[in-house]
Write a structure and sequence with these properties.
The complex is a heterodimer.
Chain A (H helix, E strand, L loop, with lengths): L2 H14 L8 H27 L2 H8 L10 E2 L12 E3 L19 E3 L2 E4 L14 E11 L3 E7 L6 E4 L21 E5 L13 E11 L3 E9 L5 E8 L8
Parallel strand pairs in A: 2-8
Antiparallel strand pairs in A: 1-2, 3-4, 4-5, 5-9, 6-8, 6-10, 7-9, 10-11
Chain B lengths: L10 H19 L4 H17 L1 H6 L3 H20 L19 H16 L3 H12 L4 H8 L3 H19 L5 H7 L1
Classes of the chains: A alpha+beta, B mainly alpha.
Chain lengths: ~240, ~180
């Protein structure tokens, strides 16, 4: 081995030996995996939608021109509580996400609806973006529906990202708040079509965008069996939040 | 880590066991850019995760991930249009060596020069001298011939030697034959 080879080998080992791996590596890989699955499913839905005959689609949704397909923004349907923001009502958009045994302890429940892991919500900036991106998974009981909207001061700095994340590259994260949406409606699959993990629930995966430092974020949530709007507040990053 | 031909190692176990070594390789492949190295490694692992069963059955998941890392590092370079490279002048004189501070400076200088190499040359040198892979395996990882690996390594070392002012060694001369 030549002198330069010996020195190069020594330099490389001295530079990186002992470096620990990134602490959240598995979590980040899963986040990417989820995005890939969601994107693939959405592409399939879009492709299928392009082939579908419009009257059939309308009949299936039963809501005429206001039908909200998978990942499409929709106007509120008849009855103010029917749907808000981006509507996720296609089982093709559900994801399969093995949850740990203690997922309920880390999650926030509102009736038939769970924000999975939201008690420890974190967001991360990618590259030069001024907006941080965090993963968000929700579980809605099969055949039930819930809508969630951003409320209070958070409307200035928080957005959901369940629609455009299918089609843009979140890895390098050059999002702005305008890419997100202020509300999302989640509709549980019929029991026969849900992945059934956890049993009886449909899981949707997406992201959220948050600008500025760690913050408290408030949501308004409406769920079908309760039939009323509730409000909840949770922290993004290491902050403490009082009741909203 | 080598798994048996039919053994399926749980993906999480593989990541826990091998992520440190893979991350260090990614660090060197990206010229010690930590955020790029993390991004590179996450992408390689995610691609492996998609077809984990098949990769494990092929017998060597680490080899797959390392190949993915090496290829992605050169692809990234193409996508970024060489942005971020630090070209050092060929006639730059190396640091004075002989004491501990000099050694540290020498290592730093060599690593900067390594980061300034074209990504394929850098990948060859990292896989050869950090991962200790044979030429055939490097060729397989980078999708080229062993002859190309040899010539890329030779050019890379020549460049480093020119920058640092070291004399050519026996093995480099042998490579050129």
């Amino acid at each position: 081995m030549s002198e330069i080879e010996r020195r190069l080998r020594a330099a490389m080992h001295a530079a990186v030996d002992g470096l620990p791996p990134p602490t959240d590596l598995l979590q980040q890989v899963r986040l990417r995996r989820r995005r890939h699955r969601v994107r693939s499913a959405a592409v399939a839905v879009v492709a299928a939608g392009a082939l579908a005959v419009p009257p059939v689609t309308l009949a299936l949704h039963g809501r005429g021109g206001q039908a909200g397909g998978a990942g499409t923004p929709s106007a509120p349907a008849a009855g103010q509580q029917a749907a808000r923001g981006t509507v996720l009502d296609a089982c093709a958009r559900q994801i399969s996400s093995p949850l740990g045994r203690d997922w309920r302890q880390q999650s926030i429940r509102v009736g038939p609806f769970w924000f999975i892991g939201l008690r420890q919500a974190n967001a991360r900036r990618y590259g030069p973006s001024r907006v941080a991106l965090g993963g968000m998974e929700v579980a809605v009981r099969n055949d039930e529906r819930a809508w969630v909207t951003v409320a209070g001061p958070a409307t200035r700095y928080f957005r959901f990202l369940f629609r455009q994340s299918d089609f843009t590259d979140g890895v390098n994260g050059h999002y702005t708040l305008a890419d997100g949406e202020a509300g999302v409606t989640f509709i549980g699959c019929p029991p026969g079509q849900a992945y059934n993990e956890p049993a009886g629930y449909t899981i949707y995966g997406g992201y959220f965008l948050v600008a500025g430092p760690p913050r408290c974020v408030s949501f308004e949530i409406w769920t079908s069996p309760r039939g009323r709007t509730e409000r909840m507040t949770f922290p993004v990053g290491g902050v403490r939040c009082g009741r909203d | 880590m080598r798994a048996g031909p039919a053994a399926i190692v749980p993906f999480e176990d593989f990541v826990r066991a091998r992520s440190a070594a893979l991350f260090r390789t990614a660090m060197l492949l990206t010229g010690q850019n930590q955020s790029e190295a993390e991004d590179l490694l996450q992408g390689a692992l995610e691609r492996a995760y998609r077809r984990w069963g098949r990769i494990c059955r092929s017998g060597d998941p680490e080899r797959y991930v390392r190949r993915s890392l090496a290829n992605a590092s050169t692809d990234r370079w193409r996508r970024l249009g060489r942005r971020g490279e630090h070209q050092l002048p060929a006639d730059a004189s190396g640091p004075v060596t002989g004491d501990h501070a000099g050694e540290v400076a020498d290592r730093d200088f060599l690593l900067r020069a390594l980061a300034g190499l074209p990504p394929r040359q850098r990948a060859v040198l990292v896989l050869r001298y950090y991962c200790d892979l044979p030429e055939a395996e490097i060729a397989d990882a980078l999708g080229c011939t062993p002859g190309t690996v040899k010539s890329q390594a030779s050019r890379g070392l020549a460049r480093l030697r020119a920058i640092s002012g070291a004399e050519p060694g026996v093995s480099e001369k042998e490579c050129r034959r």
